[in-house]
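Per your request, structure below.
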């Protein structure tokens, strides 16, 4: 699915499957700027000949918000769904009150890409990109966190940093730049190796994370998402979570998702 949003140069993409799996037969998307935020859900219903039947929900709110993506669908769960038929390569316009029209286009892929919201992403990261895809954190050969199926990417930020929260462990900060209290780690394709308090750690990801050869890592055992996360994130101290943001943003007293 490709979304062309009016008055915005960026084209958004995501993938839905046609196998009836309720976990992957839809995608939730949100995007905001200084004036408002668009929420959109596209759900695969079935096929009619060479056309795909989709259920579409949209909502636009006039309120400032930072650009986000991958909304969990709660914002539009009560919005009525409209059904459309869309052929491969065909473009249809969906009217969104308060915003205008959103252009939708669909095409079939013969596989499920690693990044559902960036199906055209290359295996190698760009020079200015730090991306974490399906991370698994291992300590002394024991898996302490496994977030397969999730991803977070920061592009164009020289201070991009991963925050990986693990219940009972606090958060691990993995940054492209040195910072106070951090130790040096080594990047090897889809793996990052580092040592903290005499424990050997291995962060494995489904795709190469960065072209940098080194990162800097710190553990903050007292960190709790419920005390620090704001703006729409369902922060539970008993569940692992991760995101990639600028180091300065992660060091703030309150963190926006």
């Amino acid at each position: 699915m490709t979304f062309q949003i009016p008055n915005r140069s960026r084209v958004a993409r995501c993938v839905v499957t046609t196998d009836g799996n309720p976990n992957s037969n839809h995608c939730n998307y949100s995007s905001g700027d200084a004036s408002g935020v668009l929420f959109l859900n596209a759900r695969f219903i079935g096929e009619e000949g060479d056309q795909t039947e989709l259920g579409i929900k949209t909502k636009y709110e006039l309120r400032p918000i930072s650009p986000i993506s991958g909304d969990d669908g709660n914002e539009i769960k009560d919005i009525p769904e409209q059904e459309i038929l869309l052929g491969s390569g065909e473009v249809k316009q969906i009217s969104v009150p308060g915003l205008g029209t959103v252009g939708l286009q669909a095409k079939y892929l013969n596989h499920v890409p690693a990044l559902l919201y960036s199906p055209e992403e290359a295996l190698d990261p760009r020079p200015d990109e730090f991306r974490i895809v399906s991370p698994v954190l291992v300590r002394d050969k024991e898996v302490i966190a496994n977030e397969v199926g999730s991803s977070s990417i920061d592009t164009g930020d020289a201070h991009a940093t991963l925050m990986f929260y693990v219940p009972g462990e606090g958060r691990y900060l993995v940054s492209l730049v040195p910072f106070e209290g951090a130790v040096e780690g080594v990047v090897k394709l889809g793996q990052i190796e580092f040592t903290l308090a005499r424990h050997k750690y291995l962060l494995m990801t489904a795709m190469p994370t960065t072209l940098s050869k080194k990162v800097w890592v710190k553990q903050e055992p007292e960190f709790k998402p419920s005390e620090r996360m704001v703006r729409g994130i369902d922060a539970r101290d008993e569940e692992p979570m991760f995101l990639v943001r600028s180091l300065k943003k992660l060091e703030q007293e309150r963190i926006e998702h």
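Residues 66-70 have pLDDT under 50 and may be disordered.

Regards,
D.
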